[in-house]
Amino acid sequence: MKITIIDNVSVTCKDNRYYTNALNGLFIDELTKLGNQLNYFQFKSLQSNNISSFDLQAHGVNCILPPLKKNKYFSYMIAYLVAIRVIKKSDFVYLYYPNSYRYIVFLCMLLKRPYGLYIRGMNGLNDNLSHYIYRHAYTIFTVSDFFTNMVNEVTNSKIAHTIRPMIPYTDKDVVVNRNYQRKEEYNILFLGRIARDKGLEELMNATKRLRERGYRFSLQIVGNGEYSEELLQLISQLDIGDVVSYEGPIFDNEKKATYYKRADIYVLPTYHEGFPRTLYEAMIFGTPIVTTFVGGIPALMQDGENSRRIEPKSVDSIVDGLSYAMDNYEEMGKMAKNGSELVSRIVDRNRMSHARQLYQIIQDYGK
User: Fold this and answer.
1) Chain center to CA of 133
2) d(CA 139, CA 274)
3) Which domain range does residue 158 map to?
C-alpha cells in the first residue's frame, strides 16, 4: 500500500539527507517492513536539530518536502498544490494531528482517498472543524484513552484507538525494587523539550524559593529546545546555578534511563500536553512524579495514587508539590510503585505496536 505520512513538525535537512526523530523513525521503519511504500510530506527545515536522527531516505522513504519560504502564505499555497499530486498517487494518507496542514483532509475527500489521524497534541482538538475531520476519517489513533474517548464520543463510534506508547522501553525495563527512604538531599529531574510552555520559568522561580526555605536538593534539566538560552540566562539571574545544572539533550536510551533511576523526583510543570512520553518513562523507572494535570494526563495520572498534582503556571503550586514530595518521600514511593504497576500493562511487549495496529486496520481497505 502507498501511504503518505504528514508529520506535524518539519523535516530536518543535513548534508542533503532528511531526518525525523528516532522514535517516529521506529514507527516508519516498521510500517515499511510490513510491505508499504511510504511518502513523507512536510516542510523542509535547514535549521540544525539534534533530536532528528532517523535518516528517512536510508530507510526507503520517499520525501516530498516543499521549502518553507519567508512568506508563509505563499509556502502553504505551493505545498497544497504539491499535495494534490501526492494524494492522487496515495492509497492512504496519515496525518499527525493537530497539524498546520489539517485542510489537506479536504483534498483527501475531494480526491476520494481515505485518511487517518494520529492525535498526539492538545491544541484545537475540540473545535467544530476538528469534529468534522474526525467524523470523516477512516481511522484515528491517539496517545491517551482521554483523547480516544473524546473522539469516539464526538463521532458516536469506535473509530479511535489508543496506541502502545512510542517509547524505547517495555515491561521488561520496569524497575520494581527501588528504595524510597527519606534522604538528606534529593535529586530532582526535568527531562523534556526546553520550551517556555513546559513551565520552566515557574520551575526556576520555585527552585529559588525552595532553596531559600532550606531544602537540600539538586535539579537537573535534560533536553534541548528554543528556550535553552533564555533558561540559562534565568538560572544566572536568579543565582541558582549552585543547585541547577543544564545537561543538554540525551539521545542514548541507556543513558536516559540512568537519569530517571538516579532521580528521586521527576517534575513536569507543563501548560498543555497530549500524554507525554516522559511520564511513561518516569513510571517505568519508578521515579516519583510531580506533574500538572493538563490535556490527556488525567487519563492515567491520579493525585495521591500515582503522582502529586500541581497547577500550571503557578510557582506556589510547584513549591508546594516539590516540598510535599521531599517531606513525604516514603508516601511518594508508594505512589511510584502504583505507577510502575500501571505502566507495566501499558508497555506490555505483547500489545500490538502503532505501525502494526495501523496496518491491520487499513490493509483491507477497498477489498
Assistant:
1) 22
2) 18
3) 2-164+352-362
